[in-house]
Amino acid sequence: MTTEKIGLEDLPWRERQVVEVIYRLQEATAAQIQAQLDEPPSNSAIRAMLSRLEEKGVLTHREEGQRYFYQAVEAKNKVADSALKKLVGVFFNDSPASAATALLGMSDKLSSADIDQLQALIDKAKKEGR
């Protein structure tokens, strides 16, 4: 297993798709992963990818009889935070405000609860001096 931390964004696109399926399902067999992919690779290719992802320290598995159930090593929210920081850095010049503005522009239907939650986060950040 490698000691270097590998982010989801650092993986080849097909491996990233496999990991995204596992995040969505929380745990999955090779067959379940294959069924979730558009134009899925062969069963042996899926199994080879899963082995590589385990070697990279991205996935782990548990055995139940003859079946392997794969899970992500890192919590989904931790990976999301890392990916979001990279996205904000690359596409929004390290400006969370620019990213937030873009996200708000994409949303046609913000509920009043969503708006209240966003306002509370803004107020908290101001209070903390961020």
What this model shows, in words?
- With 130 residues, the protein is mostly helical.
- It is 58% helix and 9% strand.
- It has 6 helices and 2 strands.
- It has helices spanning 13-25, 30-36, 43-55, 76-91, 96-106, 112-127, and strands at 59-64, 67-72.
- It has a two-stranded antiparallel sheet with strand order 1-2.
- The radius of gyration is 19 Å and the shape is elongated.
- The protein starts with 12 loop residues before the first helix and ends with a helix.
- The mean pLDDT is 88.
Helix content percent band? 55-70%
Number of extended strands: 2
Q: What is the 3D shape?
A: elongated
Hey, roughly how much beta strand do the residues contain? 5-15%
Q: Helical element count?
A: 6
Q: Could you spell the SSE succession in H and E letters?
A: HHHEEHHH
Question: Uncertain spans, ≥5 residues at pLDDT below 50?
Answer: none
Mean pLDDT: 88
| Sheet with most strands: strand arrangement | 1-2
The gyration radius over C-alpha positions equals 19 Å
Class of secondary structure makeup: mainly alpha
In angstroms, what separates the terminal alpha carbons?
38 Å
For the report, how would you describe the main beta sheet?
2 strands, antiparallel
